[in-house]
Amino acid sequence: MKVKIFSLCGKLFGKSKKSTDLEEEINVWMESQHGIKVVDIKQTSSGGSLEPAEHLISIWYETVD
Prior knowledge:
Elements: E1 2-9, H1 19-32, E2 36-48, E3 51-63
Antiparallel strand pairs: 1-3, 2-3
C-alpha cells in the first residue's frame, strides 16, 4: 500500500494557500493516477490562536495492474 499526503498550512500574516487550491491539487493528482484503487482517505487539522492552522489529507491507495 502507498500513501500520498497533501498539506495546507496557513500563515499568521500574509496570503496563504486556500482550501480550493488544495482541492484542485488533489483533483489534479487523482486525475493523473491511472491504475490505482483508493483504499482510505484521512484528514487532520491542527493549530490555534497563536499558531497557523495546518491541514493534512492522506490518500492511501494500491496500484492495480
